[in-house]
Amino acid sequence: MPSDAIAWLGGSYFRDEFAALGHRVVHIPMAATEILDWNTLVARTGGEPAGVIYADCSLPPPLVGMERFPCPTVFYAVDSHIHSWYPMYAQGFDLVAVSLRDHLPRFRQRLGEGRIIWLPPFPLGGERPPDRPPVKEWDILFAGKVDPELTPGRHALLREIRARFPGLAVRQGKFGDLFPRARVVLNIAEAGDLNFRVFEAMACGACLLTPEVGHGQSLLFSEGVHMTTYPPNDPDQVVARACALLDAPDVREAMGRAASAEIDARHRPHHRAATLAQALDALAPNTVADRLAKAGAIHAKYLRLVYLHWAEASDDPARRAAFLAAGAVP
């Protein structure tokens, strides 16, 4: 039976803000071992969904057969700097929202104008400046996990920075609690991506020192106004620019205020929800019908190799069988 619900799979992101725009959303969390086809999705939604949104949770392909889904489909791709198969997989959807701007051309294969949009990161945790600014405890703070195996670049850079600036603090915890207690918040982009931490630090009103990356960072924020940047993987410049900020408290405070105001003006979850909703509304009326008519070709050209790759990579017999079935010639 048809439903008016949007099936939202995977990460929550701005799900609630999207629902607040007037959509009935059914959230379907994804376990790492799940592979959903249309019939399973209908059962989990409580009826045939009016639309399907897969919000990236950095798993192997969680949906199969979406080239034949009879409703609009969306892929919100965040981790394209980690998963090189995303652009191929994305061709099975009607609309793709890409977090990293420089990767947009990779997704332009069968998807044309209006079918791929840039949807930058935002403060995931709803971070905001504290009502009462706390006493500053650290000159330079990096907040996040540091592991020589999982984040080797981050681990190495922090080691080099500490050798030059022994007062560097490294902590884990809620960003909203940690960032306001630092004079300078350091960000490291392990894979050269424009990461969520940029937006979370700014949302707290922190003075942010972050690497020069592409992906539209310089289009969204101004150097010396909202943030200070450093050449990637350059510990000497990290310390030099951090020390310049430490010597200029008025500059730090002004930068934090400007950054927080910019986040509130353009980069909260409701801004991303509105952008996605507008792109969905702007899809041509024949978008789904056109995809259905070309479903066989889409599967053969783009999706089949993705499924067969994951069948080979999987060490679980059930998952291997499911991906082999998805990759079979119809």
Automatic annotation (TrEMBL):
It holds the Pfam family Glyco_trans_1_2. GO terms for molecular function: transferase activity. The keyword Iron does not apply. Residues 171-277 form the Spore protein YkvP/CgeB glycosyl transferase-like domain. Keywords: Transferase. This is Glycosyltransferase. It comes from Pseudodesulfovibrio alkaliphilus.
